[in-house]
Amino acid sequence: MTAAMADTITFDPRNFIGEPYRICPKCGHGVFGILLIRGSRYTRRCRDCWTTADFRLPTLRKKIIYLDQFVISNLVKLKNPTTPAQAKLAADPFWQELYDLIFQLRHLQMICCPDSWSHEEESRISNMNADLKEMYERLSGGNSFEQFDGIKAKQIGELALAWSEGREPQFNFDPRSVLSKDPDEWDERFYISVQDNPFVTEAGIRQTRQAHHANVVRLFKDVWAKQVRDFDYWYDLERTDYQRAIAQSVVQSQRERQGVIASIDPREQMSMEALNKFLPSFAEGLLTSILHVMQFPREGGVRSPEEQTKLLACFSKANRISEAPFLKLQAMMYAVIAMKAAAGQREPPNEGMTTDIDNVAHLLPYCDAMFLDKECRALMLNVPMHVRPDDAKKLYSMQVKVEFLAFLREIRDSITVEHVQAIREVYGDKDLRGVPAAQQ
Ligand SMILES: [Zn+2]
């Protein structure tokens, strides 16, 4: 490092104190600025005399909005004149208004747009990875949905616990239970971005997705298109079959592990593939958790082996797993596709569609709204009324983009005077244009 460079990196603790400034209660100078914002509190400190004070902020209830990857991608393109799609997006006033409203509501602490495993995955296989990652992280503030396996395990865990306690399951769908941070905290003025996960490889992502998609295409052509059944048949089959698939996967993992153990050569290093087979699979982890729930009651103690066996046998006989919300949602959408296949639709769903179905099945219950591809929204709306969840109306797409903007404007119009005061206090005036409560 040269001397000139060293000079520029001087550390001044006063740089952490920022706008908006107020009059210092001790020295009277107008440099009593914001030092920290965390949870529902903030700290002011004077740049001159170092007087420090802590204050409360109003409690928040942010709306959780999921923006599909195509929205993230279009917002990136809108702001990048070198991409071919930029002119087209800029010509449609929808995209600019969407961009402005989303970021305004983010800064006003009214919404949270968490990122998901799908965003990370789809960005990693795109040539715009860095820009996409920057965009979804600016929108999420680094708040991420748990991976889908975790959400599955949580919902099935509640089904097992409720069964062992002889009660109905209670899914409260509190977004805090599946997010990496409490969404209802006031945002710091900056967040720290994390590097790409080095254990996720592009080839690995492509392989998993292609295998999943190939399976759906096979079902579409060989099963759904050939058997004429009604919606309820496919819906029930899809969700009741999951338990069998999990059991089968447990047996397969155990067999593969035995194969690895038998073939271990102490002179050679274990391959990644062998190591993967050696580690517990998702299905095995799930089974272990269910057994744990059956073994240990919440009030303490241990159930007898006979009791445990009986509980597990009845849980499995009743196929309680088929009641998991993610499974019901997924089954609804695939049942609609099965009906379309039987009605003569030629084209099987594409790879993007299988990803969208995963997103809706796992995230919809925890969101206030999702902005998705139009086919995916149409699938949910085609679910017969007697099974369709109320959640279906939280879905927006390009077909109803006007309604999505109206939904966002409504959030802006609902901001209270007290909230505006708090925003002015910690972030200043810059994001308050068009907010009715700020005009008085
Ligand atoms: Zn002072």
Helix content: 40-55%
Question: What does the largest sheet look like?
Answer: 4 strands, antiparallel
Order of helices and strands: HEEEEEHHHEHHHHHHHHHHEHEHH
Count of helical regions: 17
Ligands, deduplicated: zinc ion
Mean pLDDT: 90
> DSSP strand (E) fraction?
5-15%
Sheet with most strands: strand arrangement: 1-2-3-4
Rg, Å, rounded = 26 Å
- Total strands: 8
The coarse overall form would be globular
- Low-pLDDT parts are 1-6
* Class from helix and strand fractions: alpha/beta
Question: Distance between the terminal alpha carbons, to the nearest Å?
Answer: 54 Å
How would you characterize the overall build of this protein?
- The chain has a domain at 3-56.
- Helix content is 51%, strand content 8%.
- The protein has 17 helices and eight strands.
- The protein is globular, with a radius of gyration of 26 Å.
- Zinc ion binds next to loops.
